[in-house]
């Protein structure tokens, strides 16, 4: 065949340590049809400060692959919520081969066409809280590239038509494909008139959606005559690929004919629902009564399978042979992103008769619906059982309905299909199923009622069970509970939702409490963070006593907003917010930096120059507000104004030292008992904040930070300034000359200068 190679790449992204699915990097690819091989080239490199990170430590990178929807991963081995089905995925761990770069390759032979998703993350770290900009952080960048090779001009088989083929000696196989429409109950592939050197030395392989593999459904034509390979309950609206492969070592030319037969249960030759079905055949509740009073007949009038006015028949395998049951559609009601309800016509109560299943279809839109959670709920109306031991089984399958004909062992599995099983009875009348990140397309739910006996389950007689059915799509499982937050995430144009847990809770729905904080621990951490701000009371008292009223007001502001910010910032349920979180955070950060600013300016002793000191206070408030608005966690945006204040203090102290020709402050007691201890306490607080604080010790390390910062302010705040001597009247000079006597009232500004006059001119 003719091969075409396509190449796809994605922009490199920075990887993060795994905490929840919200911390992973998700990549979306699309593999075209008829692809025979897909090769992912996984490129990872380190960066530090804009250059190659040769000094960065090697950290393993885990990559997950899944077709149809994002991978449901659990690297921390936490517990999933109850009634949650976990779809499988493939994981690959990359190791470093070079100091700053590594490359991995992942090959998939005959991949399924459509959407593929890659998820990558770093291992979980110790949760250190680092100050942004303090040092150059090691960044691990990941870039996947996809190379696909697909076949073009694959021969198409038409049902009921015979295709002749001659396989030359240098050819080993021939590939065909046939399209299977909806309402197909069976696909039969047959090889006819096969002639070769050793009889019919051919292998016949069939696979849905992609070319066959070595483990696909296979038949050896030398051992089976006629050479027929059947697929019951095939996937609807998909291509089926047929590979005819010659045995190795067979010489000469092999000629054969191949044909495909599709069994369509919607044809009039098979059982179909009548033109006006009864309420029982349509699985409607008893309250709706009978619609026309017609039963399921053997010779219904022919109708089009695409006719939306009538139920669509589906094939069901049973001991009685092949039959067709109606499929009830659902109405899609979109409320919000990943918030979709599927309503059943004449529902939500559904009648399940004893002699036929009730089948429903739920359609999930491509790409749009795969980022949420598909929820299914069955509730049995026990009063409708009339005292019988009835069990209603539900089978949820993707892309084709499945109802097992075996009564003794009720499963949702065949050789080629696997679904999800639900059951309700008089003892357990409620059953739920949650599927995170479901594959898109059509999901079929088949309900069947059976009675339990000594020999297993048998069909019931004259008992029609009534079941409440609810199906909906939600962003997260139970909205992540009270200890989690459901986040809507985006990668390029793809949306998905994930839980971000707090207070030590983990898991896909924040339901794993193995490491959860107790209520007492949450209360203790909240009280420590809030009550540690009481340490600002002594600095406020010292400031008021020393007549530093502006500084005292700033300390009170800081104490108030720091207390209520930490009361609102708690991860658990011990939370109290008096304002919006963003407002409290801004005021807390602003108060903390303003406390440093006004303390340093007060230490500079600029009070005699009143106007200049007021300008500096106002300038500091404006600069700090601007810096916090730019980046509240940036190091230099916050450290710059503080260094500027320290520079002003250093200039003022230096000027006093030069003018007085003596070190300022002049007394050694001030240095030994106030300045040095205050500076050491402040330095210890900064070191704890920058290098020791982690997520685990945050509540007590940050409380110590509050105590140390407030204590250092009490030491560093200068004492009350001594009142300056009041200047008296200038002494009168005696001797030759004149003396100008000015009215004292005018000098004091008590009279109008225009009216004032010179009292006397004195001569010595």
Per-chain topology:
Elements: E1 2-9, E2 13-14, E3 25-31, E4 35-48, E5 51-52, E6 61-67, E7 90-94, E8 101-109, E9 114-121, E10 138-152, E11 155-156, E12 162-167, E13 173-180, E14 184-195, E15 202-208, E16 217-220, E17 227-232, E18 238-246, E19 254-264, E20 312-318, E21 321-328, E22 330-336, E23 339-344, E24 349-352, E25 358-364, E26 373-380, E27 390-398, E28 420-425, E29 430-436, E30 441-453, E31 456-459, E32 465-474, E33 484-491, E34 494-501, H1 519-531, H2 537-545, H3 549-568, H4 581-603, H5 610-630, H6 635-660, H7 668-692, H8 698-716, E35 738-741, H9 744-747, E36 760-763
Parallel strand pairs: 11-13, 21-25
Antiparallel strand pairs: 1-10, 2-10, 3-9, 4-5, 4-8, 4-10, 6-7, 6-9, 12-19, 13-18, 14-17, 14-19, 15-16, 15-18, 20-21, 22-23, 23-32, 24-32, 25-30, 26-29, 26-32, 27-28, 27-30, 30-31, 33-34, 35-36
Helix pairs in contact: 1-3, 1-8, 2-3, 2-8, 3-4, 4-5, 4-6, 5-6, 7-8
Explain what the structure shows.
With 764 residues, this protein is α+β, with helices and mostly antiparallel strands. The chain has 4 domains: 151 residues, Jelly Rolls, CATH 2.60.120; 110 residues, Sandwich (Jelly Rolls); 146 residues, GOLD domain (Jelly Rolls), CATH 2.60.120.680; 198 residues, Rhopdopsin 7-helix transmembrane proteins (Up-down Bundle). The strands form 8 sheets. Strands 20, 21, 25, 27, 28, 30 and 31 form a 7-stranded mixed beta sheet that branches. Strands 1, 2, 4, 5, 8 and 10 form a 6-stranded antiparallel beta sheet that branches. Strands 22, 23, 24, 26, 29 and 32 form a 6-stranded antiparallel beta sheet that branches. Helix 1 packs parallel to helix 8 and helix 4 packs antiparallel against helix 5. The C terminus is likely disordered.
């Amino acid at each position: 065949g003719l091969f075409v190679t396509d190449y796809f790449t994605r922009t490199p992204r920075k990887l993060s340590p795994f905490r929840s699915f919200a911390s992973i990097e998700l990549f979306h690819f699309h593999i075209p049809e008829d692809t025979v091989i897909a090769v992912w080239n996984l490129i990872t490199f380190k960066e530090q400060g804009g250059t190659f990170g040769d000094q960065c430590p090697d950290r393993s990178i885990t990559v997950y692959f899944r077709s149809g929807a994002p991978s449901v991963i659990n690297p921390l081995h936490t517990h999933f919520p109850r009634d949650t089905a976990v779809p499988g995925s493939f994981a690959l761990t990359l190791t470093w081969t070079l100091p700053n770069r590594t490359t991995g390759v992942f090959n998939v032979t005959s991949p399924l066409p459509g959407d593929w998703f890659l998820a990558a993350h770093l291992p979980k770290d110790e949760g250190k809280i680092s100050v942004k900009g303090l040092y150059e952080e090691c960044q691990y960048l990941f870039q996947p590239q996809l190379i696909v090779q697909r076949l073009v001009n694959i021969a198409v088989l038409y049902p009921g038509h015979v295709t002749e083929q001659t396989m030359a000696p240098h050819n080993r196989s021939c590939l065909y494909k046939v399209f299977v429409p909806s309402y197909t109950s069976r696909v039969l592939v047959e090889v006819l008139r096969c002639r070769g050197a050793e009889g019919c030395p051919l292998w016949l392989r069939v696979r849905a959606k992609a070319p066959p593999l070595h483990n696909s459904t296979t038949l050896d034509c030398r051992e089976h005559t006629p050479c027929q390979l059947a697929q019951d309950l095939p996937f609807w609206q998909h291509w089926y690929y047929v590979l005819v492969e010659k045995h190795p070592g067979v010489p000469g030319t092999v000629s054969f004919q191949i044909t495909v037969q599709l069994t369509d249960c919607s044809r009039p030759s098979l059982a179909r629902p009548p033109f006006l079905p009864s309420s029982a055949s349509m699985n409607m509740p008893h309250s709706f009564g009978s619609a026309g009073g017609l039963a399921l007949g053997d010779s219904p009038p022919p109708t089009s399978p695409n006719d939306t006015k009538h139920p669509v028949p589906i094939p069901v395998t049973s001991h009685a042979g092949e039959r067709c049951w109606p499929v009830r559609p659902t109405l899609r009601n979109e409320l919000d992103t990943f918030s979709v309800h599927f309503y059943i016509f004449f529902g939500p109560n559904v009648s399940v008769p004893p002699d036929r299943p009730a089948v429903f279809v739920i359609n999930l839109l491509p790409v749009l619906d795969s980022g949420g959670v598909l929820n299914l709920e069955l509730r049995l109306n026990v009063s409708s059982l009339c005292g019988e031991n009835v069990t209603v089984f539900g089978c949820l399958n993707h892309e084709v309905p499945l109802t097992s004909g075996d009564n003794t062992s009720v499963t949702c599995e065949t050789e080629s299909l696997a679904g999800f099983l639900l059951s309700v009875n008089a003892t357990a009348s409620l059953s739920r199923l949650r599927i995170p990140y479901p594959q898109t397309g059509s999901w079929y739910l088949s309900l069947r009622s059976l009675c339990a006996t000594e020999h297993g389950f048998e069909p019931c007689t004259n008992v029609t069970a009534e079941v409440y059915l609810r199906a909906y799509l939600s962003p997260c499982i139970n909205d992540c509970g009270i200890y989690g937050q459901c986040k809507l995430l985006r990668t390029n144009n793809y949306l998905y939702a994930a839980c971000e847990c707090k207070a030590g809770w983990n898991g896909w729905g924040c339901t794993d409490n193995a490491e959860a904080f107790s209520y007492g621990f949450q209360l203790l951490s909240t009280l420590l963070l809030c009550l540690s701000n009481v340490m600002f009371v002594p600095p406020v008292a010292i400031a008021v006593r020393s007549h530093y009223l502006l500084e005292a007001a700033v300390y009170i502001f800081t104490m108030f907003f720091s207390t209520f910010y930490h009361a609102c910032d708690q991860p658990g349920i011990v939370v109290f917010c008096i304002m919006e979180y963003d407002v409290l955070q801004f005021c807390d950060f602003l108060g903390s930096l303003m406390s440093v600013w006004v303390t340093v300016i007060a230490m500079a002793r600029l009070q005699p120059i009143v106007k200049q000191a007021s300008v500096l206070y106002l300038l500091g408030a404006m600069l700090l507000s601007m810096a916090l608005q730019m980046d509240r966690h940036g190091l230099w945006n916050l450290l710059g104004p503080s260094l500027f204040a320290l520079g002003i203090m250093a200039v003022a102290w230096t000027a006093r030292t030069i003018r007085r020709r003596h070190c300022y402050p002049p007394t050694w007691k001030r240095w030994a008992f106030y300045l040095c201890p205050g500076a050491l306490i402040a330095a210890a607080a900064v070191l704890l904040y920058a290098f020791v604080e982690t997520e685990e010790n945050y509540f007590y390390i940050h409380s110590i930070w509050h105590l140390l910062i407030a204590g250092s302010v009490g030491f560093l705040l200068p004492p009350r300034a001594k009142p300056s001597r009041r200047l008296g009247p200038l002494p009168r000079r005696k001797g030759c000359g004149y003396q100008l006597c000015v009215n004292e009232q005018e000098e004091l500004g008590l009279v109008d200068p225009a009216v004032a006059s010179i009292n006397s001119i004195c001569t010595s």
